[in-house]
């Protein structure tokens, strides 16, 4: 069934829909049987059961923020983010509080589409980020799909090509974005470790460290803990105590001198942390490990 483009505006916001609903069986290619653009507010809320047609519902957020729930699990989508709602999952989606949520959407189906979205879901999840360049291309393609006059087979071919362009752009860009993120995370972790190695024997605070590395303290802690399994502070403490063990074993420095050499301002704090980590005091450790008699 085909129908003219219309604006179904209301208290919830504005809507523009594609000029037609494509036949689900016309071509043996990826197909879009519904597409459009929304700019909605907190009154907007859609709740759907699993899709019997087998189509993916895909949301490309341009501005603002939206939320969607898949089989009870909550996801967020914001500018530069694509939300993927798989056909076998019940879902609901709505505008988050604050500024209006503006997004393009498509109901898409087909073998190529299924393979691409299943790959993205398996590797990156149901909410993925893409670059600004990819979002501009997707927005442009979606606008052309929405605005094109319907001329039977010509439109079907154009729609299929447009969908293929969008899907391949998403696949290519998502891989690049997440590869860059992984590289950036590894780079940040290496920078934090290098900073600790160079400054462990002086006063080190996470605030100063993050400022030197040009990242927020919260971001630094989150990435480091995700990649290493402990916070930068915990890593620093363990490294200091490891260095203290070396000094206790291979030098004749006093406990106070060892504490100062590895960055502790007080011998009492050093002794307490050493005992907590190794279940023995620095003096007792030296007695059982020293090479000097």
Explain how this protein is built.
- It is a single chain.
- The protein has nine helices and ten strands.
- By secondary structure, it is α+β, with helices and mostly antiparallel strands.
- Strand 5 and strand 6 (73-78) form a beta hairpin.
- It has a six-stranded antiparallel β-sheet, covered by helices on one side.
- The protein is elongated.
- Helix 2 (132-147) packs antiparallel against helix 3 (152-199) and helix 3 runs parallel beside helix 6.
- Pfam families: AraC_binding (PF02311), HTH_18 (PF12833).
Average pLDDT confidence is 84
What's the β-strand tally? 10
Instruction: Characterize the biggest β-sheet.
Output: 6 strands, antiparallel
Oligomeric state of the chains present here:
single chain
- Low-pLDDT parts are 1-6
What's the gyration radius in Å? 28 Å
Summarize it:
This protein is an alpha+beta fold. The chain has helices spanning 111-124, 132-147, 152-199, 206-212, 217-228, 232-250, 255-261, 267-278, 282-289; strands at 13-17, 31-40, 45-48, 56-63, 65-70, 73-78, 81-85, 91-95, 101-109, 127-129.
Kindly list the characteristics that best describe this protein.
alpha+beta; 21% strand; 4-stranded antiparallel sheet; 293 residues; 9 helices
């Amino acid at each position: 069934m085909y129908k003219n483009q219309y604006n179904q505006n209301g208290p919830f916001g504005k809507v523009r829909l594609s000029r037609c609903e494509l036949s689900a069986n016309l071509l043996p290619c990826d197909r879009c049987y519904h597409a459009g653009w929304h700019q909605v507010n907190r009154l907007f809320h859609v709740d759907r059961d699993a899709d019997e047609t087998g189509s993916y519902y895909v949301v490309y957020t341009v501005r603002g923020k939206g939320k969607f729930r898949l089989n009870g699990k909550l996801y967020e989508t914001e500018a530069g983010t694509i939300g993927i709602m798989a056909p076998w999952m019940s879902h609901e989606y709505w505008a988050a509080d604050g500024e209006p949520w503006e997004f393009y959407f498509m109901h898409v189906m087909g073998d190529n589409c299924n393979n691409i979205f299943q790959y993205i879901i398996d590797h990156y999840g149901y909410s993925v980020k893409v670059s600004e360049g990819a979002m501009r291309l997707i927005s442009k393609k979606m606008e052309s799909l929405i605005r094109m006059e319907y001329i039977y087979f010509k439109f079907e071919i154009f729609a299929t090509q447009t969908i293929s362009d969008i899907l391949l752009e998403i696949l290519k860009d998502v891989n690049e974005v997440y590869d860059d993120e992984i590289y950036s995370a590894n780079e940040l972790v290496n920078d934090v470790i290098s900073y600790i190695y160079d400054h462990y024997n002086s006063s080190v605070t996470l605030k100063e460290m993050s400022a030197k590395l040009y990242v927020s303290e919260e971001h630094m802690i989150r990435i480091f803990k995700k990649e290493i399994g402990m916070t930068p502070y915990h890593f620093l403490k363990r490294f200091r105590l490891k260095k203290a063990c070396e000094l206790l074993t291979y030098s004749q420095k006093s406990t106070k001198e060892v504490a100062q050499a590895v960055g502790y301002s007080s011998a009492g704090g050093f002794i307490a942390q050493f005992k907590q980590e190794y279940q023995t005091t620095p003096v007792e450790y030296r007695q059982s490990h020293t090479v000097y008699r």
